[in-house]
Each structure stands twice: as structure tokens, then as C-alpha cells.
Design a protein that fits this description.
By secondary structure, this protein is α/β, with parallel strands linked by helices. Helix content is 36%, strand content 23%. Pfam families: Lactamase_B_2.
């Protein structure tokens, strides 16, 4: 990294530091990268994709990968503060922790409404999870005379699609369909299966989450002028090597489909740099690290920096911005 790059990184870390923010804006929403791993292979040092926006009294999850419930509480956000969940898409690594979030929230008799936003299919997903909670809800704590509380109490689902916009807790949230899937736009599959990117316009800054996507002009337009771009990253060569190592029982056709998905529907470092430059974002946080090597953060950052001259951070779990 150049001297200028190191200076920009240091300036970003200072600017985003909670202590600095707290001194000037006590209610500032903080971003916590709860899980920074791109699935499906597990890791001993990274959890599945999940992000938290919290100002202490109100909290929002963006994706809910495995481990999101524990990480959310470890980050200082209670279930009572959770107002909304935003799912970018319905791949397992992004939804694996949702059952625990809903179940533990229910078990603790958490008051207040919770709105779950996501693409088409989210309502079926949530209804299935709520149905799976019913046996536990029926037995409750096993004390005679306990009242039955339906798991769906205070749960609302809002399905979003391209160019959707909602307001929740005074936050403006916009969504676009990205290029994580490659179904033709006029196909029934495209109408049924969509992957979303989100922009959160907070009182003091704007944060865009690419979710999983390949190169996408729609995401660039969504991110135009944003303060932070939280972007996914895939190390394509290493991912394909690991695919061969871990897929001994996978058919050749399935391997070919995986390879096409990885190559076309995720972002390599140069594509992140291009997206950030064209969108004119102030800084980039790289998460959802798929197939990446832990010793390669600097090369990834250098590749992004060849296309984008702003600050870049390769995130770890439980970092605060």
C-alpha cells in the first residue's frame, strides 16, 4: 500500500471511530460487521454474512447468517431493540441464523413489532420458520396453565423488489435488483427469484450494502455519492481450487453451474474498485469474503486501489464503523 493509501486508511479509521462519533452525534448509527464470511464453507474465524446498524435504542439486521443472534447481542444490541431485518436474498448463508433470531426473541417474550424485509419468497420463508417454532411455543416452559402465544405475534413481512423504497424508524431504505442471479428479465424465474442491494440513508450518512452481486449498473446508481459501500468479494482462483477440493461427490454438471455462478455473479477486487469509482462513494468496506486467503488482505486492497483512490478496509467479524 502506498503512503497515501495508508494515510487515507488511518483517516477513515479515525473518522469512523465510535468515540469520535459519540462526542459529536450521540444517536449516530454504528455499523457492526457481525459476520464477514461468504458461504457455504464454514470457517473457524469468520461467521456467515450479517451486519448490524444500531444506535443503542434501535437496531436493524442486514442479512442473518449463522451466528447472527449471538453476534448481535455481543455487539450490544438487545432483541428488544431489533426493529427490522433486511434480507438481501434467500441463499442459506444469508438466512441460516434467522430461525435463532426469531426463536430466541420469542422465547424471551420480546415486546414490540418486528418487520422482516426481503425479496419475493421471504414471506414463505418466514411463515415456514414460524410454523417450525410452533411445537416449542405449544409446550412453552412446561408449566401447567401457561398461556399460548403464537410465534407470529408482532411479526410483519414486507416483500421488496426493484426500486422499492420504505421508511422505518426514520430511516429511508431503497432497494434494487442486482446481478447475483442471471435469469432473463422477462422470465418467470426472474420474477420469482431476486437478489437485492440496499441503501440506508441515515440521519448523518448513507450506507449501501451490495449483498451478493456481480457487476451491476443498478447497484452503482443506488450507491451514487454514498458515504460507505459495503461490498462483497470473491477470490475467484482460490474459490475454484477449493471447489475442487471440497466437491468430490458433486456431479460435473453441478460443478460447472457453481463455476459459472462464482465467475459471473460475484465481485472480484477489480470490479469492486470499478463500482466504487463510478459510484463516487467516500469509502469501501469489503465483507462477505468468499474463498479468500487471510494473508491476502493487502493484495486485495491493492487491486481495488488500482481502480479506486478512496479508503478501503477488508473487514473482520465484529468491527465497528
Amino acid at each position: 500500500m502506498t503512503r497515501t493509501g495508508r494515510a487515507l486508511l488511518a483517516a477513515l479509521l479515525w473518522w469512523l471511530a465510535p468515540a469520535h462519533a459519540a462526542a459529536e452525534q450521540p444517536a449516530r448509527f454504528e455499523l457492526v460487521t457481525l459476520g464477514t464470511l461468504g458461504g457455504p464453507l464454514p470457517s473457524p474465524i469468520r461467521s456467515q454474512p450479517a451486519n448490524l446498524l444500531t444506535n443503542g435504542s434501535d437496531s436493524y439486521l442486514i442479512d442473518s447468517g449463522d451466528g447472527a443472534a449471538d453476534a448481535m447481542v455481543a455487539a450490544g444490541a438487545s432483541f428488544a431493540s431489533l426493529r427490522g431485518i433486511f434480507l438481501t436474498h434467500l441463499h442459506f448463508d444469508h438466512i441460516g441464523g434467522l430461525f435463532a433470531v426469531l426463536g430466541l426473541r420469542f422465547q424471551l417474550d420480546t415486546p414490540g413489532p418486528l418487520t422482516i424485509h426481503g425479496p419475493r419468497g421471504t414471506r414463505d420463508l418466514v411463515n415456514g420458520l414460524l410454523a417450525a417454532m410452533e411445537p416449542s411455543a405449544a409446550v412453552r416452559y412446561g408449566v401447567p396453565g401457561e398461556r399460548h402465544v403464537p410465534p407470529a405475534r408482532n411479526i410483519e413481512v414486507v416483500e421488496l423488489t426493484d426500486m422499492s423504497a420504505v421508511r422505518i424508524g426514520g430511516i429511508a431504505v431503497s432497494a434494487v435488483v442486482n446481478s447475483h442471479y442471471s435469469f432473463p428479465p422477462d422470465s418467470p424465474e426472474h420474477a420469482r427469484h431476486q437478489s437485492l442491494s440496499y441503501r440506508f440513508d441515515l440521519p448523518d450518512r448513507s450506507i449501501v450494502f451490495t449483498g451478493d452481486t456481480g457487476p451491476s449498473p443498478a447497484v452503482e446508481r443506488l450507491a451514487a455519492g454514498a458515504d460507505l459501500l459495503v461490498a462483497e468479494l470473491i477470490d475467484l482462483p482460490n474459490t475454484l481450487v477449493r471447489l475442487e477440493a471440497f466437491s468430490k461427490t458433486i456431479s460435473p454438471q453441478a460443478k460447472a453451474e457453481w463455476a459459472e455462478h462464482f465467475e459471473k455473479q460475484h465481485l472480484v477486487p477489480a470490479e469492486i474498485g470499478d463500482m466504487a469509482r463510478r459510484a463516487g462513494v467516500r469509502a469501501v468496506i469489503v465483507s462477505h469474503l468468499a474463498g479468500t486467503r487471510e494473508d491476502a488482505a493487502l493484495p486485495y486492497m491493492a487491486e481495488i486501489a488500482r481502480r479506486y483512490d478512496g479508503p478501503v478496509i477488508i473487514a473482520n467479524d465484529m468491527q465497528r464503523f
